[in-house]
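Reviewers of the previous submission asked for a worked example of the structure-prediction workflow described in the proposal, so we include one complete record here. The input consisted solely of the amino acid sequence. No template or homolog information was supplied to the procedure at any stage.
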Amino acid sequence: MHALTQDLLEGRPPFHRVPSSLREALRSFGEGIECFLLGTEKTVNGGTHGDVAVLDAPGIEPERIAKVVALYQTAHARRTTLERLTTCGLDAATAEILADVAGNHGPGWFDKDPFVVAGTLGWSAIARLRTSLGIPTDDPRFGAAAVAFVLRMKDENGDGDTVFLYDDLVEELVPLLGGPEQAHTALEQAWADGRLSWSDAHGGGYQSIAMAAMEEAIAEWVQRGVAHLAPTHLPPAANGHPASSSPDAQKAAVETILRQRITIVHGSAGTGKTTLLGKLVQAAAHTKRRVFLLALAAKAARRIEESTGHEASTLERFLLSSAKARLRSSDIVVVDEAGMLCVADLYRLVRAAGGCSIALVGDPIQLPPIQSGRPFLDMLLSRRLPTVHLRQVHRQAAGNPILDFALAVREGDVEKAMGLLASPLLVSPSHHALTEGGGESGAGAGDAGEESSEHPVSASDTSDGLIQGLVHIEAKGAAMLPHLAVFHTNHSPTSHFGSSQILAGVKDGPNGVHAINRLLCERTHAMSPSVGDVGPAEGVESLGTTNAATSVARTLRGCVDLPVGAPVVVMRNLPDHALDNGTLGTVFDTEWVVFPSADGSARAVEATPDVLAALMPAYALTIHKAQGSQWRHVALAVGRSRLLDRSLLYTAATRAMEGLLIVGTKADIAAAIAAPPRVLGLRTSLRHRIERTGTTS
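From that input alone, the workflow returned the following structure tokens.
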């Protein structure tokens, strides 16, 4: 008797929910049970149930037996596939994946093309599959599998393009297949097999079938929205479709969203895009229309809730919830920070809510999508949709030099931006002067072979050591770290909880996030703060902690990277603790972490293993992690990096409300301002598909 049959009769997984009465009925069938379960004998004891044989068992409905038979056949096909693949020498993990995909098809599914599911595997697994099945490297099916793998990697982990040049694909394929000739043959085979799509965008290029289908679906959705434009009082844009950039643009945006099926709202940081959401909710309530507010990150969704008083959700949670199944055509779905939407996310949203009114709110010049595509910018550039441009900045006070600098960076105006850094009213304080507000001496800057600027101190630096306005310090590499350490001391959470932050454009390198965090972590260890000195502890004083003076290097649960007093960031959502990815807090003592509440107070969260595993030091954050947040004072480390362009620099600058300290050389800062936003150079097909006549794929 087959081991799987024995599992069924004994009630072992996956048959643990089969009732004992039914198992006993099957047991009584005897040696012929496997033929019955596999359907090789169509009539058993007097009947069939559809295409599945049934057992004439008193008191047991044929439908129940049919379900068990179907479950057995699925499990049998999966186990047979596993046995065949592992017998060939394939590792168990890869065999499990292939068996799950094959399902009821069984091992025969791989006979025609063993690499039919190559798009779901890593390259090492594909190579092991080829070796275990004895397939030669010049087999065209193996080459086509390499193409599928390369396209998936470029779609998921590439530079953001969705359209790829032939030569670029060849370059990616050569290391996998051994040479250019094999790469050319593989691409020809993939085209013949229908694994490639062609796009005329950007002079022509190849796409994966999946990406082409998603961009085409979004383009068709846009065209349907254009076909049903509602009359509007807005002034016409150059192409005749409504647009607005008037001083009362927020009101115009609300009215446009209420009237149109698709609306684009864009504006620079601080122009009140989140405030707009609250006004929209209030206006929609008058006509009893429901509004679903969505964000890409849980932290951003919570910020929207705090700002609007209306429930908000992450896009992912919304798409997985039952709410999408109950959507009505009168509903309005709004996505905040839509400039960070990738093609796959917008495609999923359109499929789920394409019959509703959808508003995309964002800034195309801030951070680009992490994954492939730039649908928000493509839709904006197509000039086909109702669009409202928010221009008035509310985050910084009028005349604040931070705003002037940020806008100059946004426009790529190197001369104006660098002029602001060199302005007599915004001079760079020397390292010694910066420490007069309570920081430490400048020793160490010169040790790295760099000197700080020797400009006199201006009104930009105040007597209490807090940065005001725009301040620049000329430093490079490791010489930047002492200046950032002084900033941290003067703006320490001890006195200004959650009001300041250090940002860096890169993670690695002498001035990256990791180097800054290591330095300041060591300083925190040396300072050994006492309990109660690490921030406001209203409501958490009676945690039963030990006296700080009894331990020299106290850390959170023994984690050396998290000393008492260290700022921390949550790196993934922890719904059981009401903590979102990106939430900032402070290590209170060896067992508790303090996080700020929406009302300005603090709450303590115990450092359980799941909490501890999600925490990272946050003396410094990447600019990406800072998106959606703002602080009174920000220090920005700027070094030369191909990743640092004007969009990143602009995003970082607009995180500061009162004081912005930029540490770096003028040459590196100017290079970042001159570098156009990466998103502008992406090769995508969506705009081309929206603009063309017709919708052929």
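The first helix runs from residue 3 to 10. We consider this example representative of the routine output the project will generate in years two and three.
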